[in-house]
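Onboarding guide, step 5: your first structure request.
Type a short instruction followed by the sequence, for example:

Predict the 3D structure of this protein.
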Amino acid sequence: MPNAADKKAVMTENLRDMGLDDETTAKCLTLIEEKRYTELEKLLKVYRQTLLDSVHKYNDRIDCLDYFTYTLRKNGGI
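The system replies with structure tokens like these:
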């Protein structure tokens, strides 16, 4: 865990915890250093939408799984 006084290390860890790859993490840090916050916000919004799309995809799969097992139970299959 980075020292809280080392802001760049803390930001790097946070960006990696979000699931960003090394290249995107470096891009974010560059945008922060250059105070290009509008571009950073756009990049993060796109990434957020990507994560949400994944959540929705897997949620749909869980719904299908739940329906399938419900149907099996209802018909005496489980």
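Each response can be followed by summary notes, for example: The chain has one domain: 7-74.
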